[in-house]
Amino acid sequence: MLLTPERTCPQARTRRFLMVPPTEFTVNYEINPWMDKRKPVDTERAMAQWEALVAAYREHGHDVRLLEGMPGLPDMVFSANGGLSVDGIFYTALFTHPQRVAEAVWHAAWHQTHGSRVVQATQINEGEGDFAVVGERILAGHGFRTSLAAHAELADVTGREVVSLRLVNPSFYHLDTALTVLDETTVAYYPGAFDADSQETLARLYPTAIRVAEADAHHFALNSLSDGLHVFCAADAAGFIDQLAERGYAPVPLDLSEFRLAGGGIKCCTQELR
Ligand code: ARG
Predict the structure, then answer these.
(1) What is the rounded radius of gyration, in angstroms, for the C-alpha atoms of the chain?
(2) Which atom of ligand 1 is nearest the CA belonging to 177?
(3) Which of 21, 36, 51, 162 lies 20 to 30 angstroms, CA to CA, from 6?
(4) What is the rounded distance in angstroms from the CA atom of residue 232 to the CA atom of residue 167?
């Protein structure tokens, strides 16, 4: 009898995250299509949702570290954008919009005092918002925020393969709104967020990827965080939750709707420390 190699079962690995409490969170500028200064943020509700996310991570054994939010930096809660931590290196963010530029300094300072080798980026990039580590490879988004030059710089700095993917839909302006890493070999993504070449690249690199429907993508399905088994994901991304369960992942549905007012969600609030 011919034995086909078994698909490995999803397995959790304990993670370390850096998160910023939403003490300063509000929408007082507009830098993506989700943001509307006229729609008020319910600060208490945002805090409760964020605390529930932290609690869910901790209940699943993950180590959550905190960096204080700074006055005047309402988007700092989106710690994923503060830089990329990989192999003990911290490649700093260099934000596209002036409103967010100062956030990078606080992240770099935190990493400096917590033992990373901090590498100051010279090219525009928004950290894990546009960089996704999948096993040995790094997928990198461009088109709205992070520059192609930063992809090359990151490859230089880390010695890792960096695969560029072009984002074309302004609602999915960061890679982590269009693609999520499920484990070292599997991703989920919304094809419509990418140009034709990038769709081909993804299909070639990840033939078993989960392709997410447009409606779920609009519910921030791809702004999920997976530990390899548990997938912390938007509660209203119903189709995606079914797809995950079919593949043997364990969805952990959470409501981060208040952060959608700024174009953010679970993954945006989470920077992984590697
Ligand atoms: N308002 C923020 C911005 O437009 C949201 C950032 C969301 N972060 C993310 N990793 N996608 O920059």
Answers:
(1) 17
(2) 11
(3) 162
(4) 23
How many angstroms separate the alpha carbon of residue 100 from the centre of ligand 1? 10
**Angstrom distance (rounded) from CA 255 to CA 15:** 21
Domain boundaries, the chain: 16-272
Which DSSP letter does residue 72 get? Answer: T
What is the number of other CB atoms lying within 10 angstroms of the CB of residue 246?
9
Q: Is 107 a catalytic residue?
A: no
CA-to-CA separations, 143 to 97, 148, 155, 197, 223, in angstroms, rounded: 14, 9, 18, 13, 18
And the tokens for 137? 């490879």
pTM above threshold 0.90: yes
What are the phi and psi torsion angles at 224 (to 5°)?
-100, 165
Annotation marks residue 268 as catalytic: yes
Provide the pLDDT for residue 2.
Answer: 52
Q: Are 83 and 108 in contact (CB under 8 A)?
A: yes
Contact (CB, 8 A) for 1 and 254: no
What gap in Å lies between CA 191 and CA 195, rounded to an integer?
Answer: 8
10: Cα within 13 Å, side-chain hemisphere:
19
Span 34-77, pLDDT tens digits: 999 999 999 999 999 999 999 999 999 999 999 999 999 999 99
Q: Which two tokens stand for residue 107?
A: 């992240």
Q: Is 22 in the pocket of ligand 1 (CB under 6 A)?
A: no
Say whether domain 16-272 belongs to CATH 3.30.70.100.
no
